[in-house]
Amino acid sequence: MPIVIPKDLPAFEVLAKEKIFVMPKERAVSQDIRPIEIAIVNLMPTKIDTETQLMRLLGNSSLQINVTLVNMDSYTSKNTPQSHMQKFYKVFDEIKDSYFDGMIITGAPVEQMGFEHVAYWKELSEIMAWSDKHVTSTIHICWGAQAGLYFHYGVEKKALDNKLFGIYEVRAEDKYDLLFKGMNDRMYIPMSRHTSIDETKLRSVSDLKVLASGKDCGCAIIKSLDNKRFFFTGHSEYDRTTLKKEYLRDLDKGLKIDRPVNYFEDDGLYNIDLSWRSTAYLLFNNWLNYYVYQVTPYSFE
Q1: Are strands 135-141 and 157-172 parallel, antiparallel or unpaired?
Q2: How are beta strands 157-172 and 186-197 bridged, if at all?
Q3: Rounded to 5 degrees, what are φ and ψ at 160?
Q4: Taking the domain 3-240+277-293, which CATH number applies?
């Protein structure tokens, strides 16, 4: 089944070329199907790239999925045309009376700031509180995971001496969790962050369970015991060249940055080992199937 998105959204043409089953809204409304409603709270500066990455993973499911893109009313994106934002995005006031089967809160390049110093922290806090009663299950990604762990459980983040940057091996701490159904023992996840979470505090929270961790990257996947909240500290959704673009961007800015580990296959910049794609597809597909579709109510009324 397809992911239902506007035909003029940039992701539509990209995913159609990749043989990802996308369907315009005009055709979807003619089908007698209860689609899964997913909200994406997109905090990334490269919003169009992030839309495409997440929709690619959601579109690999056998479910028909409607996507609602959400942005912060309290912050104006500097890297995405306002025409795009006005045409395809909604703000919280426009969705607060709605219910969603699933929600994704993305990362954001604000991890070195205190949470309360982020311009849209109050608004994001309202969304995270609202999600308790309006969303069946939510994935929080990278800084979004740190924000969710701090807001819901008081788990702080800590600065790293060096940026965690590259592809990291992780292993399941609970191999039988349905999120890992069909996966290998070794999973690979892109990481790109200057901070980590306080793992001592994290593991002391009785409502949380660490599902996967890595020797070099720490806790990678965490969930609440009621399955309403998942926290991914990496970026499984990243494309083949996303880390390369980040690396070259930081070099151009004169920032101190090491080559991403376990990413380039040689000393050059062109041979990239796409070692995380199957993990990404399975993570999102299993979340949609076992923690959204199979438990969400047929009617929200």
Answers
A1: unpaired
A2: antiparallel
A3: -95, 150
A4: 3.40.50.880
Given the residues 123, 142, 217, 219, select the one marked as catalytic: 142
Give, in degrees to the nearest 5, the angle at Cα 230 between 224 and 235. Answer: 150
- From the CB of residue 21, how many other CB atoms can be counted at a distance below 10 Å? 14
Q: Which of 168, 176, 136 lies closest to 243, judged by CA?
A: 168
Q: How many other C-beta atoms can be found within 10 angstroms of the C-beta atom of residue 299?
A: 6
What proportions of the chain, in percent to the nearest 5, are helix, strand and coil? 35, 25, 40
Active site residue 13: no
Residue 20 has pLDDT above 80, yes or no: no
No. of helices (H) and no. of strands (E), the chain: 10, 12
Give the tens place of pLDDT for each residue, 45-93. 999 999 999 999 998 887 889 999 999 998 888 889 999 999 999 999 9
Annotation marks residue 134 as catalytic: no
Q: Any catalytic annotation for residue 235?
A: yes
- Among candidate residues 37, 51, 237, 246, the one labeled active-site is 237
Tokens of 130: 């609202």
